């Protein structure tokens, strides 16, 4: 079942998503060597609660924290811990907020100190792939157009697309229909219509596309141990241009 949102609902979702991007901006200054990922999680939780909202991921299917923090070869769903950031790390922070009955969801991959040139390229290409996907998220296009644009850009730059984890509809529930894969064929899948709100979230690997789940039951990492990047925005489908609800700027 796909839920189409009214303009009033989209305005509320804008509020939830804006708080997600403000949380990202707030923790950005913590991306320094020696900072523990659990400390970042605590600061984010406090910030979200101070703004009259609830962390959207906390206790979701039993997830123990407010942020998913996935460092280097971790793809997504990393659990904040006593791990201390070090020079050269990349840190994917996925943040969710629940406010006024609606979810916000956005992810950003930060750098710590000096990062290898090819890893910086991975981050650049993943972010570009997200925006190319967003460009396709207009009324009349199809879900496959989004995935195609993302896959095309990632693979033409020599990177690979995670298949098992995908974007999603979002609203009163964190994960709603439809699924939004980061790969696909033009002209395939559900037709996009005004009122549809989706989270587009390319997970792009430097090496192989294959992933594994850790024994903690959550953390997803690359099979070959090479880095992975993750950028995500929640967007509302519109006639000419998707409206980015979680604007990081
Ligand atoms: Mg997310
Ligand atoms: Mg998401």
Question: What do these coordinates show?
Answer:
The chain has 249 residues and is of the alpha+beta class. Helix content is 28%, strand content 25%. It has four helices and 15 strands. It has a five-stranded antiparallel sheet. Helix 3 runs antiparallel to helix 4. It is globular. The protein starts with 6 loop residues before the first helix and ends in a 5-residue tail after the last strand. The mean pLDDT is 97. The site of one magnesium ion has 5 residues, from strand 5. The site of one magnesium ion (MG) has 5 residues, from strand 5.
Task: Furnish the topology, listing elements before pairings.
Blueprint: H1 7-28, H2 37-50, E1 54-55, E2 67-71, E3 74-76, E4 90-99, E5 102-111, H3 117-135, H4 143-156, E6 160-161, E7 167-169, E8 176-180, E9 197-200, E10 203-205, E11 211-213, E12 220-222, E13 228-230, E14 233-236, E15 243-244
Bound molecules: magnesium ion (2 copies).
Q: Which segments are poorly predicted (pLDDT under 50) over 5 or more consecutive residues?
A: none
Shape: globular
Task: State the distance separating the first and last CA atoms.
Answer: 33 Å
Radius of gyration over C-alpha positions, nearest whole angstrom: 17 Å
Helix content bin: 25-40%
Number of separate helices? 4
Overall SS class: alpha+beta
Mean pLDDT metric: 97
Q: Which ions and ligands are bound to the chains? A: magnesium ion
- Give the ordered list of helices and strands: HHEEEEEHHEEEEEEEEEE
Strand content: 15-25%
Please describe the biggest sheet, giving its number of strands, its sense, and whether it closes into a barrel: 5 strands, antiparallel
**How many strands?**
15
Query: For the largest beta sheet, what order do the strands appear in spatially?
Result: 8-7-9-14-15
